[in-house]
Design a protein that fits this description.
Blueprint lengths: L3 H14 L4 H10 L10 H18 L11 H19 L10 H15 L9 H26 L1
Amino acid sequence: MKTHSQYIKELHILFNQCNISDANKAAIYNSYGVTSSKELNGAQLGEICNKLHDLLRKDGREAKPSRRKTPLQQAQTCCKVAIGKLLAAQGKIPASGWSFAEWNLITGTACRAAGVDAFHQIPLSKLRGIAYEFNSQAQAIAQSKQIINQ
């Protein structure tokens, strides 16, 4: 739940994004019987913010929430891909289109390498180290295949 000050900050950000003039802000405040945003209660602030969000959505200007992964999620993904590439280079799993069974093998391999029972227990530093080692091994296999094919 947002605090009163968070709603006020959001309201003023939305006013700027919608290019609402001071006269229009005053008209909005007057419609609620107040003269400033500080006099509005939480329900009134939420109602105004929702209307402004709707206005931005209609214009196609609504800011989309960030879908960026956290550093831990990025490291988990890199670790899984590195292990998957090595297992594919070794011929233990297909090179692409991994099924549930392959993902279980990959996460199980990561757990064994880290010495933990569950994948989510692996700390960030350990994930990075595992990814580095498995990438190094996959590169060594790729280089040896190149030498053999020459």
